[in-house]
Design brief:
Elements (H helix, E strand, L loop, with lengths): L2 H21 L5 H10 L2 H10 L2 H10 L2 H10 L2 H10 L2 H9 L3 H11 L6 H4 L6 E2 L5 H12 L8 E5 L5 E6 H6 L6 H4 L7 E2 L4 H11 L3 E5 L5 E6 H20 L2
Helix pairs in contact: 4-6, 6-8
Length: 251
Amino acid sequence: MTPAAAVEQARERTVRVTELLDAWPVLSAEERLEGLRLLPHADAEDLLLSLPARDQAELILETSAGERRSWMRLLPPDDAADVVQAAPQAEREGLLALLDEPTRKEVAALLAYAEDDAGGLMNPRYARLRPDMSVDEAITYLRRQARERLETIYYMYVLDAEQRLLGVVSFRDLFAAPPEKTVRDIMHTDVVTAPESMDQEALSRLFAEHDFLAIPVIDAERHVKGIVTVDDIVDVVQEEATEDIQKIGGM
């Protein structure tokens, strides 16, 4: 395939997804599912991941048992927890059962938090390092962690043996540092954090104030429980705006 043909193909795929998203609010559940199935698999995955949790839940519940399992396992733990919460009560246990055992435990832990608290928004998968690692060792370890479908590797959090937060290292700082330096030498110890119980409005203000891509969520003993990304906050704000518009439209 020539470069020009590849560009044209990519443009056509984008148009198909965009057109489906534009029509999404007026489509029935059956039409949404039909549209999803008409897309190439990679585009269908991107579409599902871009939807609000309520739409994801409705769409997944319309699929066959085999499809349902695949779609649930595509979702990162925080998104899977949102889908379970958005589903009717009678369907929640069934959706949880579709996940692999490690992810099911992560999702169950997230469901213990209030939906609009930092603990309920966070992803328990994040990049972590030990302070005594050399930069070379840290990069090798980071590559291994990246295979676990981490939420982000823009920041790596430095933890002690009890999983308490010591500092943070950016992706750029790690790869720019001399290989013989240790993580402790290059980490920043003044870390902006969010307690598990911080509500989403306060969390939004924290992101706006510091302009970070991710913020770690900690408990009272500074154990890192997960991270919230700026994308998570944007999704929450957009979902609330959509619900407000729908309420106005129903008046």
